[in-house]
Design a protein that fits this description.
Low-confidence stretches: 2-21, 489-688
Number of strands: 26
Mean pLDDT: 75
Strand order of the largest sheet: 18-19-20-21-22-23-24-26
Shape: flat
Oligomer: single chain
Length: about 800
């Protein structure tokens, strides 16, 4: 939909493929170069090259300032007594009782003693990632993750007090965190009392006393409340500060000005009255946070996605109403809010594609700090879950592919593993062989770094086969080189170190637990399933895997016409080929680096290889490649890279489904929420014909869109060589988009990148705005010199 040009001033449009980020990090004895295109590489450090972390002169990582909690003198005294006695402490109690407020206040006010104070939030995080947080808070590390055996040695003598909120861990997991800093004292906060015996003291946090509850209500209302009403509310709320805060908020926001406290019997049902009193921007921001469930978001993202100018101030106001809670990163919804939002009618769901696009683009930017991406790991995980539930495996792939390099560089291997475990099966369902190879490769690298070397050998061997099938020799070499650091005689007996192998990385000699995204050969954790992949066969003695469950889709969504597996021509299996159809060495059984790969493998706009069947036979299916939308020209020299690199998670499949919108709950939850009362009549909407019809462009061209059903519109077009093809735009409501290859001028079939075109209908439905952007490039010197914005007008 655009011409060509050579204006070098358009360099600002250049975007690296899927967050192409190449950078070194060091984990234990391993040097890792993170590569977003061809898979990361790993080598063993030479003697004397391991970094020497320097202990910080002043350890001081404090929580954000918040108001002073009322009625907590006795709790503070208990914490002080335990710390002075050399004991760690666990604060525990139900949600909303005030544990976090107490912990934050203690971190800021109690005598730090020793070497200083560290405050961290452990919500939905692995203990190993938290241990790395503690290490980095106490040392200047320079991108280094010590091995599990080395970490306690580096932390020896560090007598800090470490406060950890949302530490909902078992006793063994708490011990893992404490062992990482053997001379530190810990104060945990969680829902259950699991700390016991020699590990420390468990202190239950109770509700407020009646006097403290009265003081809280008076502070929030600006005046004392009626003593009898206050006493009744205190009793009904069991002294829970969160419920009392919401009761005061309902009274304070009463539109009649009466400012009367709610009835005691309604104290636990105050969320809907609060929602009714919120203005539109506040409800929209709260709705966004609720969409992300228990994940925290930086105010920058809240503002960008909800259209709120001052998101930080708005969310702080919501926290004062007991609807959100402030975190070190930003904000998340408070307890009970998500369930209440699911029951509220009339909320317009956020576009899933828009949310995924926003975070994928943000995570892929070279200037986005890896620590920020790691801080949003739970939000990315929730996005992948929502996309999976909506049947959009392509969006899962896009989010995980964009975030993976930054998570690797952040050295938070737990979060990295969780995302990779979501991305690999999604890539297989989406038929994205390049993403499948990449995720398999990265899981193998991670297994090396975390000490699960048996699994590493299996995954890297599989990745090598997949890369060779795609014709990417650079990536195949990276996988083969990484295999050098995996024992060749690794068998199914365990994942420990072998004689003669290189030094271990983090988790030295320890097999990952399922919670960490790894497993031994006999475990049932997330990594165990990959050992049953048809591409590598079934490990002896392990049961056959159950088929993956079909994700539920929203009640309003039509069935996915592409969900049924297409008929695929099978590649004959013989002793001279691997499971994926790759030639193998008869002597070793390893993939051969020579010879001709099966027909169709590695073609840039053609067939994509796909593993199929429990027998491990390879299969290939030709996928239609979307037509060129805008030309990409070389700014320097056209590097003849593998054309298969142009395949990405954003490729439009041959059969498209409408862009889903994010719902708060599975369809059964929505039905259950409305069984006792009739559903409200839907508001009348203006009649739209979508993109169907003929449009005149302000660029002088004419465009014809045909309704293909299910929210898909096709446009006749040509590829880079002038061959007729068709571009598919998918979407819903007013917004439709397509991602298609951009071609070089010479040779005309050389794919240099991916360009996304978005068409947004104006309110009248007869005009539309077209925007174009580069979402990935194959050659780093490639630039889009014609990406532009223009207008479409529906022809009469």
């Amino acid at each position: 939909m655009a011409g060509t040009g050579d204006d070098e001033t358009q360099a600002g449009n250049r975007i690296d493929i899927d967050g192409d980020a190449t950078g070194p990090v060091i984990a234990g004895n391993y040097n890792v170069v993170v590569d977003a295109q061809h898979g990361s590489t790993v080598t063993v450090l030479m003697d004397g090259r391991r970094p020497r972390p320097r202990r910080r002169d002043r350890i001081r990582l404090l929580p954000r300032r918040q108001g002073t909690p009322l009625g907590r003198d006795a709790d503070l005294a208990a914490i002080t007594a335990a710390l002075r006695g050399g004991d760690s402490v666990q604060l525990w109690g139900p949600p909303g009782v005030g544990k976090s407020a107490l912990l934050r206040h203690a971190a800021r006010t109690l005598d730090a003693g020793g070497d200083g104070v560290v405050f961290l939030d452990a919500a939905r995080r692995e203990p190993e990632d938290l241990a790395q947080d503690i290490f980095e808070a106490c040392h200047s590390t320079g991108g280094y993750a010590p091995s599990r055996a080395e970490l306690p040695q580096l932390m020896e003598g560090v007598e800090a007090t470490v406060y950890i909120d949302n530490a909902d861990y078992t006793a063994d997991q708490l011990r893992t965190v404490m062992d990482a800093a053997p001379d530190a004292l810990f104060v945990f906060a969680g829902r259950e009392g699991t700390l016991q015996g020699a590990d420390g003291r468990a202190h239950r946090v109770e509700g407020l006393t009646r006097d403290a509850a009265a003081a809280l209500l008076a502070r929030e209302l600006g005046r004392p409340g009626d003593p009898d009403v206050v006493a009744a509310l205190w009793e009904a709320a069991s002294g829970t500060p969160l419920l009392l805060l919401r009761a005061a908020a309902v009274a304070r926001l009463d539109p009649t000005g009466a400012a009367g406290l709610p009835r005691p019997g309604a104290v636990r049902e105050l969320l809907h009255p609060l929602f009714d009193r919120l203005d539109e921007p506040s409800l929209r921001a709260l709705h966004l946070l609720g969409t992300f469930r228990d994940a925290e978001l930086d105010p920058e993202h809240i503002g960008a996605l909800s259209g709120t100018p001052d998101a930080a101030a708005l969310c702080a106001g919501l926290a004062g109403l007991g609807l959100t809670e402030e975190t070190q990163l930003g904000y998340r919804v408070a307890d009970g809010v998500v369930a209440a939002l699911r029951e509220r009618p009339g909320l317009r769901p956020y576009s899933l594609e828009r949310l995924c696009t926003h975070f994928a683009d943000w995570a892929a930017r070279p200037e986005t700090p890896a620590a920020q991406v790691a801080g949003h790991a739970r939000a990315l995980e929730v996005l992948a879950e929502l996309a999976e539930e909506s049947g959009r495996a392509d969006l899962v792939v896009r989010v995980v592919r964009a975030a993976s390099p930054a998570l690797a560089r952040s050295l938070r291997f737990g979060a990295w593993g969780r995302l990779l475990d979501q991305g690999l099966p999604a890539a297989q369902r989406a038929g994205d062989r390049r993403a499948e190879a990449y995720f398999t490769h990265e899981r193998g690298i991670r297994a090396v770094l975390t000490g699960n070397r048996v699994l590493a050998g299996v995954l890297l061997a599989e990745a090598g086969v997949l890369w060779h099938q795609l014709g990417d020799t650079q990536a195949a070499d990276a996988a083969a080189n990484a295999q050098r650091y995996v024992p060749q005689d690794a068998g199914p007996s365990g994942g420990g170190p072998s004689d003669g192998g290189p030094s271990e990385g983090p988790g030295e000699g320890v097999t990952n637990s399922p919670a960490d995204g790894g497993s031994d050969l006999g475990s049932s954790g997330p990594d165990a399933g990959s050992l049953q992949d048809p591409a590598v066969g079934t490990a002896p003695g392990t049961p056959a895997p159950e088929p993956a469950p079909t994700p539920e889709t929203g009640a309003s969504m039509p069935p996915d016409p592409g969900s049924a597996a297409p008929d695929m021509p099978m590649v004959p299996s013989d002793p001279g080929t691997s499971a994926g159809g790759m030639p193998v060495d008869p002597g070793t059984g390893a993939p051969s680096m020579t010879g001709t790969p099966p027909t169709g493998i590695g073609e840039a706009s053609g067939a994509v290889a796909s593993s199929a069947g429990a027998g491990g036979a390879g299969a290939a299916v030709a996928l239609k490649v979307a037509a060129v939308i805008a030309a990409v020209v070389i700014g320097a020299v056209a590097v003849q890279q593998n054309r298969s690199s142009s395949e990405s998670a954003s490729d439009t499949p041959a059969v498209s489904v409408p862009t889903p919108t994010v719902e708060f709950a599975a369809p059964t939850d929505l039905v259950d929420a409305t069984t006792d009362e009739p559903e409200p009549e839907p508001e009348p909407e203006r009649e739209l014909t979508g993109l169907a019809g003929t449009w005149n462009g302000s660029d002088g061209d004419t465009y014809v869109f045909t309704d293909a059903g299910f929210g898909t519109y096709t446009m006749a077009d040509e590829d880079g060589c002038g061959n007729p093809t068709s571009t598919e735009f998918t979407g819903s409501g007013d917004t439709y988009s397509a991602t298609a290859p951009g071609y070089a001028r010479e040779p005309c079939d050389l794919v240099l990148g991916q360009i996304r075109t978005t068409i947004t209908l104006d309110e009248d439905g007869d005009t539309a705005q077209v925007t174009q952007e580069v979402v990935s490039v194959v050659d780093r010197s490639a630039r889009c010199t014609t990406c532009q914005s223009f207008t479409l007008t529906r022809a009469s």
